[in-house]
Write a structure and sequence with these properties.
This protein is 54% helix and 5% strand. The protein has 786 residues and is mainly alpha-helical. Helix 3 packs across helix 7 (232-262) and helix 13 packs across helix 14.
């Protein structure tokens, strides 16, 4: 590769702007209709104004202001309409977030590994739950119950091929189950394909190679480790294990009814023995899958480029072979075998719910043990944020699985009496939804009342901030109301904690009721007090209706987002926040965009500074500030010495520091302040997302500027003859403080000091990588928007 031209340290400065959630255009970020892509592709790229493409060759033109450059990454999450379907993967994304919510700790490496192991096992149960729901729909409700019932099969002509009345080759129960097993098998294959395709596009992006810094573990933290943003090996291993688990779930659902029939007195001994051998093989391969999930977590201390190719192939292929053997075994002719009642759905779903409850409880105990080693009063729920979120992930999986089963059962059973319907366990779980929603409604009402009272109290504060100006009651109320509503973000831990605790308690009660009574809530309450019986019937009816409505909303929202760009943008914002973290607990979660964005930013900053010796202001808004911080941690000390960090509307402490204390807690943010040359943070009291980096102000370093005025003018002035808007989370560049802080950061970078370069005699960069072609003529950022 032709090496880029190296410029002397001329004092040229860049401002590399990184936008926030929802994305924007380079024209808007740079405030210029003519922009040029400097480097990158259609997914993520760096842009400049057309007049600034060769700015490094004309440094005298940019001595007073930095060259603006924009990094646009919105297409990594919300650019493709097909990604709206990722909404159906929401439980997987939520359980993956629980992995990163581990409390900060002093030592205890075994307990840390145990925490990650428990979350990975919880993620594995979600995969089994999703595939089990597909088996319940295709095998139990359609092939076993409806196709085996003449009245139900007569209403659905597409089941005529499977009906015993037709007397066809597929009419025996075993062969009906084998044919229906194609549906959950295809679902498992689809999840494997989506994970493999996104794995190739995201996890395969290699960051810059460098040696780990000796102080990383105690200073920069995990986000500064060389292999943090390269999880290719773990995702490949988990993908193989989860794919095998899905196929084994299908095999177990197909083999269990045939084995139960063969174990009857007087049954064929050969088939009985084959059934036992097949179940033993399924259990052995299941143990191998669990062992692979438990064996090893993430490798972050070094850039691990190896792949477990044999493991990734053998696990799914072995499970697929067992599924084929199961199909042959179940499809064997068995005279006298008829389909009556339900399949063993209660045992399967009840066992999954019990395992998930035990995992969440164990996760809570582990998180509490970690929190006690280094208590952080700002951490969400005193370190129990991860277990609470894992509980919500399991609840979301149950709602989606139960909603599918309930809606399909209602559709197949037109009269409501021809087939038994879904398992009793799912009916009990649906019945707890109304009380959970009632608790949530009461909690929201309480928060609304508190916000209203706070807004009234803030009116006096707003008036006192503008003495001598004519009072405007309506404008005062609006400003106070915006400030009060911005505080609702800080109440999210309360909502999550209460909902997860209520869900866990009621879920345990529902599981106990289903396993002890074997009947629906209405059936179990029959013969009791009329009020109790009426409450049970109401809860069962509303729960069934609400769980189906919830799933219908998921599907409808996904379909609307596929066609509507505005809805797709809204869903894209969800992924911008939820998929920042690598896939460490579930391989079928939506991919991590930061594994592409952080290496992009790191390469851009390192190559530009090494080729020009200039100064660089890394300017991040909202979620862009999180990407900026992660990229700054990945730089070498020589490069970081030429970088200043400017964040605004930043959730670094308010959201990430509280919810992810092990990675963005007080110690990590203090280390970031030490690592970069200088750092300033801007925020507003009307911003519901951004906040100060040091809300307590007692950490011994200054990062935050005093809260910016919002609006910029209370009334009409000569500078603002029209009413100034309340900006909240957007348009921080409109405040004069933005330009002022940027100039001070550039001044603190000491343009008279040459960049530190440690290069071999041939001029190759010290990390072994050559700068890309044109690195010497690429510049910095521009305007960002949220």
């Amino acid at each position: 590769m032709e090496r880029a031209q190296r410029h002397p340290a001329t004092g040229c400065a860049l401002e590399l702007l990184v936008h926030g959630v929802g994305g924007t255009t380079p024209e808007r970020m740079l405030d210029d209709p003519r922009t040029v892509r400097i480097t990158g592709d259609d997914t993520a790229a760096v842009f400049r104004r057309a007049d600034d493409v060769d700015a490094e060759s004309r440094p005298e033109k940019h001595r007073d202001t930095p060259v603006p450059e924009a990094y646009v990454w919105c297409n990594l999450t919300s650019g493709n309409s097909a990604r709206a379907l990722w909404l159906l993967l929401l439980p997987f994304m939520v359980v993956n977030l629980a992995h990163w919510m581990r409390p900060a700790t002093a030592g205890r490496p075994r307990t840390v590994r145990l925490y990650g192991l428990l979350v990975r096992l919880a993620g594995l149960t979600l995969t089994v739950l999703l595939v089990a729901a597909a088996c319940e729909v295709a095998l139990d409700l359609a092939a076993w119950q409806c196709a085996g019932t003449p009245a139900c099969a007569a209403r659905h002509s597409w089941l005529g091929l499977l009906s015993p009345a037709a007397g066809g080759w597929w009419s025996p129960p075993g062969r009906r189950l084998v044919l229906a097993a194609l549906v959950p098998t295809a679902l498992t294959g689809l999840l494997w394909y989506l994970s493999h395709r996104t794995w190739s596009a995201y996890e395969s992006q290699q960051p810059m190679s460098r040696d780990p810094e000796p102080e990383e573990d105690s200073g920069s933290g995990s986000l500064g480790r060389p292999g943090f943003w390269y999880g290719r090996r773990l995702v490949a291993r988990l993908r193989a294990a989860h794919t095998a688990a899905g196929l084994l779930t299908v095999a177990a659902a197909v083999a269990a009814p045939a084995a139960a029939f063969d174990r009857r007195p007087g049954g064929p001994a050969v088939l009985d023995v084959l059934g036992w051998l097949l179940h033993a093989a399924l259990l052995a391969w299941t143990a191998a899958v669990v062992w692979v999930v438990c064996r090893r977590g993430r490798s972050e201390r070094r850039l691990d480029r190896r792949l477990d190719r044999h493991l990734a192939r053998r696990l799914p292929l072995g499970a697929l072979l067992l599924l084929l053997l199961t199909a042959v075994y179940t499809g064997w002719s068995r005279p006298g075998w008829t389909s009556t009642g339900r399949l063993a759905g209660d045992t399967a779903f009840g066992g999954l719910a019990l395992v998930q409850s035990l995992l969440v409880i164990a996760l809570g105990i582990t998180a509490h043990a970690l929190y006690r080693t280094r208590p952080d009063p700002r951490a969400v729920l005193r370190g129990l944020g991860g277990p609470a979120v894992a509980t919500l992930a399991c609840a979301l999986g149950g709602v989606m699985s139960g909603g599918v089963c309930q809606r399909v059962a209602d559709w197949l059973d037109g009269t409501g009496t021809s087939i038994p319907g879904p398992p009793v366990t799912l009916t009990w779980q649906a019945s707890i939804i109304p009380p959970v929603l009632l608790v949530l409604l009461v909690l929201c009402g309480r928060l609304a009342g508190r916000t209203w009272r706070l807004a009234r109290a803030l009116r006096t504060t707003v008036e006192q901030e503008h003495p001598g100006e004519p009072p405007d009651p309506e404008r005062t109320r609006r400003i106070a109301r915006t400030r009060a509503m911005a505080t609702l973000t800080d109440d999210a831990p309360l909502v999550v904690g209460v909902v997860s605790a209520v869900t866990l308690a009621l879920g345990a009660a529902a599981l106990t009721g289903a396993l002890t009574t074997g009947r629906t809530p209405a059936g179990a309450a029959s013969g009791t007090h009329p009020a109790l019986q009426g409450a049970a019937q109401t809860a069962q009816f509303l729960g069934s209706w609400l769980i189906g409505l919830g799933f219908a909303l998921f599907v409808t929202w996904g379909r609307r987002a596929y066609k509507d760009a505005s809805a797709r943008r809204t869903i894209g914002i969800l992924w911008d926040v939820g998929t920042f973290w690598p896939r460490a607990a579930h391989p079928f979660a939506p991919p991590c965009y930061a594994e592409r964005a952080v290496p992009d930013l790191t390469w851009r900053m390192a190559t530009w500074i090494r080729s020009t010796g200039g100064r660089l202001v890394l300017s991040g808004h909202s979620q862009g500030s999180v990407l900026a911080a992660a990229a700054a941690w990945q730089l070498t000390p020589q490069v970081r010495g030429r970088v200043a960090l400017l964040t605004y509307g930043s959730p670094l402490e308010r959201l990430y520091g509280r919810w992810f204390p092990a990675h963005f807690g007080p110690d990590a943010l203090e280390a970031l302040h030490r690592d970069v040359n200088c750092w300033r943070n801007l925020y507003r009291l009307t911003d519901p997302i951004g906040g100060p980096v040091r809300p307590d102000g007692d950490r011994g370093f200054e990062v935050d500027r005093a809260p910016l005025k919002d609006p910029l003018a209370y009334g009409r002035t000569a500078r603002h003859p029209l009413p100034a808007p309340v900006l909240g989370h957007s348009d921080y560049q409109a405040d004069p403080a933005f330009a002022e802080e940027r100039e001070q950061l550039l001044a603190r970078l000491r343009p008279d000091l040459p960049a530190q370069r440690h290069e071999p005699p041939d001029g190759t960069p010290s990390d072994g990588h050559e700068p890309p072609d044109g690195a010497g003529v690429q510049g910095s950022a521009g305007r960002s928007s949220g």
